[in-house]
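call fold(seq) -> tokens
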Amino acid sequence: MSRSIVRQSKFRHVFGQTVKAEQAYDDIRVSKVTWDSSFCAINPKFLAVIVESSGGGSFLVLPISKTGRVDKNYPMVIGHSGPVLDIDWCPHDDNVLASGSEDCTAMVWQIPDHTLTRPISDPIVVLEGHSKRVGIVTWHPTARNILLTAGSDNLIIIWNVGTGEPLISMDDHPDLIYSISWNRNGSLFCTTCKDRRLRVCDPRKREVVAERLAPHDGIRPMRAIFTRDGNIFTTGFTRMSQRELGLWDPTNFEEPIALLELDTSNGVLLPYYDADANMVYLCGKGDSSIRYFEITEEPPYVHYLNTFSSKEPQRGMGFMPKRGVDVSKCEIARLFKLLDKKCEPITMTVPRKSDLFQDDLYPDTAGPEPSMEPEDWLEGRNEDPILVSMRDGYVPPKSRELKVARKNVLDSRPATRRSMSTLETSSLPPQLLERLLEEIQNLKATVLSQEKRICDLENKLSQYTNGTD
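ret:
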């Protein structure tokens, strides 16, 4: 009886390729902050990279088409008083981005479609609720304006950024939270923590519904993401510091569906998940390779496909949503590799001879329209993402105002700055007020110093004039 030895899969021959040098982004000073985030966020319109900066935190936002050398004076997004640790584009508006920082705040920004001519320093809303640095920001996948933040105070806060109000707060984690991932419809999220536990949380019930101690035996940081089937894919370390990946069923955490050792290295493996192809791309900080796997329902469940290797190690990585790939070239994924002073796009392609649209490679994917309003989600409703066809490619819409049922701070541009004489300081958050007063004192000190310098120069000039007379 004949039996097929080679597993049949349309993704078995996926190959990675670095774009030409002129299609990369040069002269970007990538942040050197010691935090295990990707430092990069991508959508079909923009590339955002956390960069090295003095005197606070900033990040760079470039139109995706603005390749080549980046001018050293290109305007940044500035506003945080401490280094930026994480950034995330809103899945329902390609012009809205959230950032978390060491200054204990998260901020939401509106990025204009046109090329920036001046720095953006006015966030649409400042979210203040954490007592320590905010290391994770992630948007809800289907509900409008819902943002989750997690800080080093071990607190998780879910916000309605349309009103700037905290909706839910959870303090179930006794130690530092390493990663958070929503499931497909946003009814649950999973977390990994320094206490070596993997947790599944129901935010609306404000409770942990499942947990597993040490899915990986090592003490180094873990990462976890939900798959489209509701399973959880994890990366971590063995006791002998070998890197390891696992697949778990959250309804039965006793035994893993799959557990696979990879190699020995110090870098934390960051997983990037493609729900349409059910593929995972693993990128380790400090690695010069990207491994990719396919998750299926047949043993061994997690199938190694291939490795893309390059010469230089990566500092971070960005992952383009499926609606931003080029369907005419059978591109199924695009990653953006951060080097010390450069960002290199890497395309993942399925080799096909036909130039026609490949239906089997591009099922309908999550589109930019939210499935429900914040109030609907808070009341217990669950909705899968609204899907769009990739047949004609995806054209990003122009910058648009967000439509919400009640007044939304995202609907209007930031208000014109007023002088301190007309500013109602009592309405400002204490932290922001303290920062403003400190800046005013510094400016006054600078002015006094300059006035003294002018007086000294005038005196010298007067003495010189009298002497010549």
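Helices lie at 374-378, 430-468.
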